[in-house]
């Protein structure tokens, strides 16, 4: 029953018992925050507040405060929106798709990856909201009659599909995350010494007691949620890509967008998971749970999805030429050689070239190198969205209205603000939530723990 | 407290284990002797425990299916009511006279609402059936069972002898045995 081939590397290093896992996972919650945490948290908070200021300024004055003009009507806001939604995808992929594929290495990273999903979808959802200009009319997106008269939302519109997709995705992710968190909150509740902590975790854990029937339901609910979340996560970026693909703008009007966007989303999401977890494992001494093997697995996925994205870029170029449509051809020629050539080639370098280093085992098992590549990939994926949006718009059918886009301090402030907000949420999470799904992890200790694997080898029995 | 004549106080023997495999063997041997296992509390799901205890398979997945169908029906009703009956619109010349013609454009919403209903309502059902809600006090009698201990509660039936059960539990590897009544 508890057996895994000895050739597989252990997923939990060191001489760990069930109790050790409990202690290690509860430690960040039970101890005081180190000084570094306060420094990073303050920085993130200041950036966030600056972003809030810029958002309030935008709402008060209007989106004329951004660098948009008549030709480039979508720029950083939609770029940031797509970027953040894309980052979110890795969390669901790890918790849902890897669950369906029975990939046990997901267990020590799924909690943080899902947290990342939820926090980045919050950032993403901000942008369409403020881009509306009149945010107090945001209820127009809900299926209620506009002005409470007789005009309804348009179910034919990809933008409305997006509303449904993002809100379903966000709320289902939260629920999936919370169902998994309940047993871990119960663990912290049962260890809590201070009455305040006891009370808070009692509230959060919903009274979980780990009864056999409840665990049976837990496992089935997790499996069904994974089954639902898998097509859901693919649908979300598909629908985001349809915001572009169903239009008639050269450079946007392509059928390759849905798979290409989904691959790009997974690509950037895994990069962000790597960025966060390389720090988390170090700061919280969780190297035994989030091993080099975990980082390597994620690097392989980054390499694979990066290559898929590369194929998509080249396919786009080929199809533009093959279509024989001169506007389509110009859109792509302009991307690569026009005034935004630097954005295009940054995208190509970061997304297609840099992940190829991961073919080398030495590089993909190096933490420093993985960290650098994860940042590079995220920069590249931001440029990808910028290239798709701005370079397709800035030279339209009428050369007299051709223009360039330059961001104002408000554009930059809101973007940085969302990065600050994301880290504020993630840092708070890291100190108050069990960052590893310890209940799940305990189920694989006997099959994938280092000490148990050695024991199997020695006894030569299963 | 007054007691009805037909019901007796249940005597529950609880045995604490420190390993899931030993617990599972214990469950099987206790079950083989014909005792009823009231409950098992564990820090993580143990595979093979529910058949050993004689638990029926859960019907959570069936509820999800029913809720999903409900979500699909809701999305059809919404799109039909709003786009076809109440206020048909000519958008880019797309067919809008019948729901069937317009349906391809509604597929994303139909999918999203199916998932939305199935996921959320299933989780509500899960909370309801498990009796989980914010502020509920811990259901496990021993706080160690969310850490690394496993607790089995066995009902001492009318015909079972206590000594026999206690020695059975001791032999199965229990590290602590307590008696309490419910």
Report on this structure.
The complex is a heterodimer of chains A (462) and B (182). Chain A has one domain (18-449): Formate dehydrogenase/DMSO reductase fold (Up-down Bundle). The radius of gyration of chain A is 23 Å and the shape is globular. Helices cover 70% and strands 0% of the residues of chain A. Chain A has 17 helices and no strands. The N and C termini of chain A lie close together (7 Å). Chain B has a domain at 60-130. Residues 1-6 of chain B have low confidence and may be disordered. The chains are: A mainly alpha (462), B alpha+beta (182). Chains A and B meet through helix 1, helix 5, helix 6, helix 7 and helix 15 of A and strand 2, helix 2, helix 3 and helix 5 of B.
**What do the pLDDT scores of chain A average to?**
90
> What's the count of strands of chain A?
0
Count helical runs of chain B.
6
| % residues in beta strands of chain B | 5-15%
- CA radius of gyration of chain A is 23 Å
Largest interface: A-B, 68 and 65 residues
* Computed Rg of chain B: 26 Å
Low-confidence stretches of chain B: 1-6
Q: What gap, in angstroms, lies between the N and C termini of chain B?
A: 13 Å
The main β sheet of chain A shows up as: none
* H/E series of chain A: HHHHHHHHHHHHHHHHH
Please indicate the percent range of residues of chain A in DSSP E strands (runs of 2 or more): under 5%
The secondary structure category of chain B is: alpha+beta
Number of helices of chain A: 17
